[in-house]
Write a structure and sequence with these properties.
Layout lengths: L1 H39 L5 H35 L3 H33 L13 H7 L3 H12 L4 H4 L2 E8 L14 E8 L3 H18 L4 H21 L3 H15 L3 H7 L1 H27 L4 H6 L1 H10 L2 H14 L4 H14 L2 H17 L6 H17 L8 H10 L14 H26 L1 H11 L2 H9 L7
Antiparallel strand pairs: 1-2
Length: 478
């Protein structure tokens, strides 16, 4: 009698977790195949590597295609479906969580790098790349002001494709050369969606629809339907994730010159960042989550394994956003909370990046045998926090924002070349932590807002729905 029940439970488990197991398998197989190919064959050309990464590229393009319509429709419908006081309380809780976790990540990173001191005695081969040279030609005030300019976009259509950027260039006709602060500058548009601008526009539009009440119901229904349609497409795309993630990782490993030599030269730096990410993700966040909800987050993290594997494979929290929302919906989190907190978190909550920026700056200062005061450390903390927000739309860990942090302790922008060799790998780990922190933050905000959400549901419910709410054992009686 027990065998059929056990078989049915086992089949149910496989049915519910098959995609997660396939995605995790894709990550391991991709890494294994990449190592085998790299060690058993000769040099691979860029074109051959491009052929291998092609299936993963298609998967990444599909995910990125969903970002703009899903982000705008999700935030707009979520805020429009709540009254202003309710959406304001959710926003305050979410931003408080973002602030506390980001500051905690930076402080943890600084404590580790000043204790372990990975930069002392390191022997690093400096790498000069075109991306480093481009990153060197920025000023911290310009980067911070561009961040604010992008929040207040002047063209919402253009924001779906481009970001504002201030470019500086040296006037070669002037002799002798002048400092960078005196260089000429111009406005430019960098390719890539202006996510900050889209988030700000969606928040304002959702707030307006909420205030319009019955007059705005048509718009509210449109954005709700669009959000549901995007999630349906996402449910189709996620079945490609095991294949896409596997090919992306395999191609990246084949592309590396020498993994062992790279990690050996930057071993202590790599260990410091990884230790910080692990302690923050499974220690600091767990403590904050427990204090707010009274439960540990590890069972939720286990349910997020497919999302975390995809985040590691793609290296993009924005591209993983549709999958994160889909997963949290399946866990029973209120869609109004999920569709507001996740898009905003994927844009501004970058705990892993903030920790990395702080560790990297002080690591390079140690390597250059440069002393730094307590004031320098405080300045690095503040700048790393701001840089992590600015890095939201910048690929490969934000070389531009890293220059901001280096400038804070008086280091040359070209020193980014010291750590760029392992940046691609660390970028995937910190993206995974970023996504995990966003998801746990959504669960935390949902827990803190549950009574407010029930009040809204009762206010808007039909008589027969009130009976169903009253019959729910989890509801508190009034």
């Amino acid at each position: 009698m027990t065998r059929p029940k056990e078989d049915s439970k086992f089949k149910a488990f496989l049915r519910e977790n098959s995609l997660t197991m396939l995605t995790v398998t894709g990550v391991f197989l991709g890494g294994l195949v990449g190592f085998i190919i790299k060690n058993s064959t000769g040099e691979w050309t860029k074109r051959e590597i491009m052929y291998i990464s092609f299936p993963g590229e298609l998967f990444l393009r599909m995910l990125k295609c969903l970002i703009v319509p899903l982000l705008v429709s999700s935030i707009t419908s979520a805020i429009g479906g709540l009254d202003l006081s309710m959406s304001g309380r959710i926003a305050i809780r979410a931003n408080a969580y973002y602030f506390v976790t980001t500051i905690s990540a930076v402080v943890l990173g600084i404590c580790l790098v000043t204790t372990i001191r990975p930069g002392q005695g390191a022997k690093i081969v400096e790498i000069r790349t075109e991306s480093v040279d481009k990153a060197s030609k920025v000023l911290t005030p310009d980067t911070l002001m561009d961040l604010v300019r992008n929040m207040f976009t002047d063209n919402i259509i253009q924001s779906t494709m481009f970001q504002y950027r201030t470019e500086i260039f040296e006037n070669t006709s002037i002799s002798p050369p002048v400092p960078m602060e005196e260089w000429d500058f111009k406005s430019a548009q960098r390719e890539g969606s202006n996510v900050l601008g889209l988030v700000m526009f969606s928040v304002i539009l959702g707030t307006t629809i909420g205030r319009m009440r019955e007059k705005g119901q048509l718009l509210q229904d449109f954005f709700t339907s669009l959000s549901e349609a995007m999630m349906t497409i996402t449910s189709w795309v996620i079945w490609i994730s095991p294949l896409g993630v596997g090919f992306l990782i395999a191609a990246k490993i084949i592309e590396m010159d020498s993994i062992a030599a790279t990690i050996q030269s930057l071993g202590w730096y790599f260990i410091t960042v990884m230790l910080g990410l692990f302690l923050h993700g499974f220690g600091t966040i767990a403590v904050i989550f427990f204090l707010a909800t009274g439960t540990l987050p590890y069972r939720y993290i286990a349910k997020l394994s497919q999302v975390l594997a995809t985040a590691f494979g793609t290296g993009s929290s924005s591209a993983t956003m549709p999958l994160t929302i889909k997963c949290l919906d399946g866990m029973g989190i209120d869609p109004r909370v999920t569709r507001f907190v996740i898009p905003v978190g994927a844009t501004i909550n970058m705990d892993g990046t903030a920790l990395y920026e702080a560790v990297a700056a002080l690591f390079i200062a140690q390597y250059r045998e440069m002393s730094y005061s307590f004031g320098n450390i405080v300045a690095v903390s503040i700048t790393a926090t701001a840089a992590s927000i600015g890095a939201a739309g910048i690929p490969q860990a934000g070389l531009v924002t890293m220059v901001m942090v280096l400038d804070t302790v008086g280091l040359e922008p070209k020193d980014v070349s010291l750590i760029i060799a392992v940046d691609w790998l660390l970028d995937r780990f910190r993206t995974t932590i970023n996504v995990m922190c966003d998801a746990l933050g959504t669960i935390l905000v949902n827990h803190l807002s549950r009574n407010d959400l029930r009040s809204v549901d009762r206010l808007n419910a039909e008589p027969h729905e009130l009976l169903e709410l009253g019959a729910n054992g989890n509801e508190t009686k009034e």
